[in-house]
Amino acid sequence: MTFYETINYIIDANNLYFIIKQSHRKEKGHIMEAEYLPDIKPTSEYKNVTLENTFDSLNSSENGLTDNEATNRLNKFGYNELVEKKRNLLLEFVQRYWGPMPWLLELAMGLSFILKHYLEGIIIFILLTINAIIGHIHAQGSQKAIDLLKKKLAIKAKILRNGKWIEKDARELVPGDVIVIKLGDIIPADAKIIEGELSVDESALTGESMPVNVQLSDIIYSGSIVKQGEAKCIIVNTGTNTYFGKTANLVKIAKPKSHQQQIMMAIVKYMMYLAIVMSMLIFIYALSTNIGILTILTFAVIFLMGAIPVALPAVLTIVQAIGAMELVKKGVLVTRLDSIEDAASIDVLCLDKTGTITQNKLSITDYITFQQYNKEDVILMASLASKEEGMDIIDLAIINYAKSIGINFTAYKQLSYTPFNPSIKRTEAIIEINKKRFKVVKGAAQIIISLCQPMDKDVIDKANKIIENF
Q1: Which helix (DSSP H) or strand (DSSP E) does residue 157 occupy?
Q2: pLDDT tens-digit profile of 336-377?
Q3: Which helix (H) or strand (E) holds 414?
Q4: I want to staple 121 with a disulfide (CB 3.0 to 4.6 A). Which of 113, 219, 462, 470 is the partner?
Q5: Mind listing the pLDDT tens digit for each residue in 179-204?
Q6: DSSP character for 93?
Q7: Could you tell me which of 442, 434, 396, 398 has the C-alpha nearest to residue 417?
Q8: pTM, whole model, 2 decimals?
Q9: What is the DSSP annotation of 335-388?
Q10: Which of 386 and 268 is assigned the larger pLDDT?
Q11: 436 burial type by CB count under 10 A (0-12 exposed, 13-18 middle, 19+ buried)
């Protein structure tokens, strides 16, 4: 039987005591070195866990993993990617003949052949096949585009392996790996910060348009984007075990009803009701006039076939395919044709976050001046207290706006720049022009007002009233 045992040694060295932990595996009376493979835990459980306990839980250290340890974990946890089922193209195409609307068309086709109306039956089959082919071709084209995008967007990660920093595909990350992430990186897996601070855009996960500031021992999530800073982190979960992976799995298992299919079935239902009523009236009339049963059945079939809109599915599919092509020109990739109709049929949209439905971009709409300064002065000073390389979304909005209205600040030299700090709520810069230096401060209005004391009370009251109105 195999089990793990932790042995603690206390060593006396010049009256200094050190506690050394060694993990061994006992097997058949022998002590052998072995790697302990960690169990999968939800990312949320690592939030309130100390860094020391995190390293112990993942059987890792700040020196990262060895190649052998990483290989063992890769075999246990799999690659850091969302696994997709292998697609059978033939089966996917055949499945397009299966469903409520195809069943109705197939029923009409069967009745046509029974009554020896072969031409009508063939026409229905052709329409059904056209519908299936268009949908299949579009789905294949969208999938190829998605596969190409995946290859182009393959993320690289800087990983600490065998005590050395190397660059590998992010799909090869495993729990316990130590990585470094910096400005502009997409976070490749759920991780806990062990050194440094970051400003992270989590809008893809939470819908929050403003970046979140994270620091030592905080959790960062796969799919987020680093907007500021640099940090050393330990991976706690990969692939489908990440927060993003669990969300993606929920989307996969969701089976929403197609709005288009609901409308078509409603049309067919009421037309069938009408056809049945008309068939009953014909049956009653036929009984009173001694018309043969075959003739009655023929009329009944005609009414039932007339109740099924044979060409409607093909027409709708063609219209949606054209719509999908137009959307592609605008940068929208449609993977399922029915989704166009689903999106177009929304009557009420309920949202709890602003960043989810907007372009997730900040822009300047207006700014107010005080005393002798004009609007150009304000935007110039704000630009000087910003830094384009820092990729701060507020700084970028100000700089881009200044450029758009023709503000020229190339003559000014930024000697130093202090990024925004939540604790002081401001950004600072030392500027030089014509051998003269001055400081520019940009930040929360209340903080700026407090730095401008003493000021005219009327000016302060006016500023506070404007802030309140905003």
Answers
A1: strand 156-161
A2: 777 777 787 788 877 665 555 666 678 888 888 887 888 888
A3: strand 413-421
A4: 113
A5: 999 888 889 999 999 998 888 988 77
A6: H
A7: 442
A8: 0.57
A9: S-THHHHHHHT------S-STTTS-S----------TT--HHHHHHHHHHT--G
A10: 386
A11: exposed
